Amino acid sequence: MGSGSSKKAKVQSKEVDGAKTKGKKNARRKSNVKKSVDKPETARQPPKGLRKHVTDRRKSDEVTRQIVALEAENLLLEGVWELEKGVDNEIKPTDVSYPAPRPGKPVTDTSTFSVVDFEVIMNNMNESEVASGTFEEVATRLTREYTPEILKVRALATWMSCQKIRTRQYGNEAKPGTVLGYMKQIKDLQGTFAGLLTLLCRAIEIPCVIVKGVYKSHCHLVGEDDVVDSKCTWNAVHVDGNWQLVHPYLMCTPLATQTCKDNWTLVETSVEAQGPKSGAVLNTFFFAPKPSDFIYFCLPDESMSYWQLTETNSRYTHFLKAPFLRPAFFSSRMQLKSEHKSVLLSEAGKCNIKIQCHQENVNDISIMYELYSNDTEFERQEEWGDLVLCGRNEDTWNIQIKFPVDGTFKISLFAKLEDWFFWIGDFKIVCDVPLSDYVPTPAVPRGIGYGPCTVTEEAGLLSPSHEGGIVFYKPKEEHVIKFLNNEKLLLSHEIEQTGKESEYLHRYCKMVIRKSEVDFVINLPSSGEYALRIYKVDELGERHNVCNYLFTDSDEGRKRENVFQRKARVKLRQMTAEHDIEALESAIQKFSNVRLPHDDDYLRGMRRLKYLKLKKGLRDGRMRRHEETLCKAVDDAEDSRFQAALQPNIQKARDILESLRSLDIHCHPVLEMDQKTISEIANFTKPPRDVHNTMIATYLLLGEEKPFLQKWGNIQALLRRQGKEGIKQRVNQFRDGPMPNKTTLQQVQKLHDSVPKTYIVSASLSAAAFYDWVSGVLSYLNNSSQNATDPDDSFEADILYDQYDDRKSKELEDGNISQDEGFLDSQDIETSTRTNTAIQ
Q: How far apart are CA 259 and CA 262, in angstroms?
């Protein structure tokens, strides 16, 4: 994207529902941001986190539109192209009649921005025609259909991004005082994008100020005073009662996706493939960003410092020392949780950077790195292993760098989401004292890495309790890593620490496999770094690495805890590994009451609570056999992250739903009968045996006693009742009442089996309708009894496998003992757990 090669200008767009455009290309349409707008199908859309998140796409009636203008202008991306070279000293920066600059409310609803983007781009394909005229004519033409004012400014900024201002050819129409004339001035470096937006906004009476200051471009040397000459201009617009910031030049200019590598030597990288040289042209981050985020990029001149629009103004020295973060960092809603500086000093040869991701995309984003040294003759030693450990602990990515030698280093961080690649920031690290007792981090296959991945899910290990690959621990502190699974698995595991025998460490990890869960109980004896490797064993006995975890005791971010906090944390970990919803809720409440931060243990507990409640909802729905309750439980489970793990439970609920609907179908013939038709059965003086048995079966299901029903006269009296006690009403309400007991069902089944369908049809068509209803009820109740409970609802139903003993695992893999012998019943495993705990 945005390369210097000559390509045909284009606009790529995407619509979530895939609707195709229905308008002519050059036809001008009336715009309405509230109505649906069709647009052409395109290849792909911006990643989640860089676009508005739609929480329920399936239920939403609104069409979500996402626009990305790519390569709208073929620019020669040479040097510091992110800095505008044009200057305009003629336009008055501000006006005394404007409202005073003060912090305003940030724009929270951006859902209509993409609609405006699409309409403006599609309706203004004929650039010379739309751009011709005075500033008032063009601005009015572009914005007359939009309210509120923020959408008017958005329309103007988006229109500017697709005008190819710097590369188009201007004819005789480019006269002074016209839009085309000023666009030509920008090309001739006599005008600015901020000046153009100012003239357009003021033409439609929107207050617009030109702010002058400095900008940290992609060539900024982290921590250096090199931005004093990086001049730029942007705007502050007063819309809807608030001042908002807009940087039109950066909105319309490709941003670099790589760090400047001059005079730096690459030491280590985890980047699989380099990203493109530049990013999208329509950089929406620079439209109405939070001033607290924008201050990381641009700082107004001292004379205009009040246009920072923040509660407290930043100074130039603070601006230089602030972390060098890129727009993708803020667009993805990341937060820096470690030291808030651009230059970091290592402590005892180590340095840590922590980045917290937003909950909506935490499982989709991967962070990669490039480590550089300013020593051009730097030589990396093979025995060092990886100097950088980049892994996730719940919603926080931990980047730990260990330095075996001193020096000055730079680490560039990147975020990857599917095939989207973003540069999110650089940090400079100064190491004066290298790590004295350097020990390499245990190595794992780079394709698997630390933490659950697609290979883990494909192996059948679903919804891990620890979604990140790094686990912080203290010696002799028990941790339980839990996976959900839907199939019988044969697994093995090993613990490794650099310099120690794996067989010795194996005693400190125990694995237990149930029908629906796999637990790894780890209790490490001493400090250091340990790797837990999990393998799936195939039919041939070969092991395949499917997941790895790194246990480390170096968690500088966790504060010292008092005795009550420690007890609350331990209790929460214990309850997270169990199945008791009330106990887990109580543990979570106590965790919050002692004022512990909502860290990794809290998030795991909340996630476990969500899973248990979803599972309970499905089970309760199956037990109640209530259609609305079941539908809600199924929808909640399918919309959750546990859909794959709960699939057997969901299917059981769907089977009961199908039975309920089938029961309704069998009810229809009975409910459609009138009282006259029912009376035909009651008019039998001596009914055929098949008719009598069918009606006995019917009333047994409705709660009557069998001795009472042996007399036909009693059945006649029941059939003649009407209203709430009538048979139609009782059949209609059958699902909502108590279900027959096992003895009654056996009696009904025996009576029903004694009546051939052909005989009852020939005897009475009315009685045949009740025969079909009894048949449907029996089928429904049999299906319900099979699907009412989960296979793992009771502890006695669990099939557990303890691979604590190396010898037993080896024998099982070699086939020397049967697989069934490797499984223990619940009593054995409970005893084994106590014994192993005592040994530890």
A: 9
Helix 149-161 and helix 193-203, axial crossing angle in degrees, nearest 10? 140
Distance CA 56, CA 74 (A): 38
Tokens representing 430? 């100064």
Distance between CA atoms of residues 461 and 518, nearest Å: 8
Q: Is 506 left (phi over 0), alpha (psi -120 to 50) or beta?
A: alpha
Q: Of 229-238, 351-360, 799-808, where does the model show the most confidence?
A: 229-238
**Alpha-carbon gap, residue 817 to 240, rounded angstroms:** 76
The CA distance from 280 to 13, in Å, is 12
- Distance (Å, whole) CA 512 – CA 504: 19
Q: What spatial distance separates the first Cα and last Cα of the chain, rounded to whole Å?
A: 57
Nearest one of 817, 823, 820, 831 to 803, comparing CA atoms: 823
Q: Is 584 left (phi over 0), alpha (psi -120 to 50) or beta?
A: alpha
Contacts 24+ apart (CB under 8 A), 157-160: 157/197, 157/246, 157/248, 157/251, 157/287, 158/69, 158/116, 158/117, 158/120, 158/121, 158/282, 159/120, 159/124, 159/130, 160/193, 160/196, 160/197, 160/248, 160/251, 160/252
Residues 577-636 pLDDT 10s: 888 999 999 999 999 999 888 888 898 899 999 999 999 888 888 777 677 788 888 889
User: DSSP state, 256?
Assistant: B
- What is the Cα–Cα distance from 518 to 490, expressed in whole angstroms? 11
Q: Name which of 562, 99, 503 is nearest 307 in CA terms.
A: 99
Structure tokens at 433: 């004292």
**Residue 368, token pair as written in the block:** 């990669």
**Integer Cα distance of 781 and 653 in angstroms:** 14
Q: What is the pTM of this model?
A: 0.69
Distance CA 629, CA 573 (A): 31
Amino acid at 674: D
Name which of 55-59, 194-198, 254-258 the model is least confident about.
55-59
Q: Where are the beta strands (DSSP E) in 49-161?
A: 65-68
CB 484 within 8 A of CB 463: yes
CB 172 within 8 A of CB 131: no
> What are residue 287's DSSP bridge partners?
246
* Pairwise CA distance, residues 189 & 292, whole Å: 31
Is residue 233 classed as helix, strand or coil in its secondary structure? strand
Residue 246 near residue 359, CB atoms below 8 Å: no
**Omega before 597 within 30 of 0, i.e. cis:** no
Q: Rounded distance, CA 148 to CA 524, Å?
A: 60
Nearest to 221 by CA among 337, 353, 372: 372
Amino acid at 378: F
Report the alpha-carbon distance of residue 68 to residue 279 in Å, rounded: 11
CA torsion, ordered 376, 382, 385, 386, to nearest 10 deg: 30
Tell the residue number behind the tokens 């803020």, with chain if given. Answer: 330
Average of per-residue pLDDT values in the chain = 79
Phi, psi of 162 (to 5 degrees): -110, 20
Cβ atoms < 10 Å from Cβ of 640: 15
Q: Angle at CA 578, nearest 5°, toward 596 and 466?
A: 60
Tokens 């996730």: give the residue: 392
The first and second tokens of residue 613, run together, are 């409640």
Amino acid present at 11: V
What is the token pair recorded at 461? Answer: 């290990």
